[in-house]
Amino acid sequence: MNLRQLPNTITCMRLLLTLPIIWALLQGEYAWVLVLLLLAGLSDGLDGWLVRRYGWHTRLGGYLDPLADKVLMIGTYFTMAFVGLLPLWLMALVVLRDVVIMLGALLYRAVTRRLEMQPLLVSKINTFFQIVLVISVLVNAGIMPLPPLFLDALIGIVVVTTVVSGLGYVVGWTCRAITCRRAA
């Protein structure tokens, strides 16, 4: 195997971890879900470190890494809503934001003939709180009860950061597309 492809291989393994995570959620094996999510998080950090450390950037990896992250997050949120661990409306909001971002990226590419995907700071904050919420809900359901106010506050933070980051992408891409069209 070409070592330059190692980060992509790790990313593919993370993508495949989505299936056992969903299965464990459906079985109520929340401790296993936490272990699998930890492995997914470590693999995400490792593939990113390898890319930065050795310059092993690939075009495939540029698409595959965020795809793996989205599939894992959406699959986890969808399944947690299905089994009643998260409100259905919250899962719908998280998925809707990602759909809007994907459609916005496609539309931006169609208008400008290019696409620069730079995550917004608020989007990184949103992802952090989405992950903290998942972990907290799993801990609450399978390991030890957490204060309901804490979980409600996390849900509120996820709602706000999800909406703000989604709007941030829409506004940012719209302004850049208008500027690009005027310059052409």
Q: What this model shows, in words?
A:
The chain has 184 residues and is an all-alpha fold. The protein has 2 domains: 1-69; 86-184, no CATH class. The chain has helices spanning 6-27, 30-54, 59-82, 88-112, 121-142, 148-183. The longest helix is centred in the last third of the chain and has 36 residues, at 148-183. The radius of gyration is 18 Å and the shape is globular. The protein starts with 5 loop residues before the first helix and ends with a helix. The model has no long low-confidence stretch (mean pLDDT 92).
The average pLDDT value, as a whole number, equals 92
Low-pLDDT segments, ≥5 res = none
Distance between the termini: 44 Å
Shape: globular
Order of helices and strands: HHHHHH
Structural class: mainly alpha
List the quaternary state of the chains.
single chain
Biggest sheet features: none
Helix count?
Answer: 6
Based on CA atoms alone, the radius of gyration comes out at: 18 Å
Relative strand content: under 5%
Q: What helical percentage do the residues reach?
A: over 70%
Find the count of extended strands (DSSP E, 2+ residues): 0
| Overall tally of structural domains | 2
In short:
This is CDP-diacylglycerol--glycerol-3-phosphate 3-phosphatidyltransferase. With 184 residues, this protein is mostly helical. It is built from 6 helices and no strands.
How does the SSE layout of this entry go?
Blueprint: H1 6-27, H2 30-54, H3 59-82, H4 88-112, H5 121-142, H6 148-183
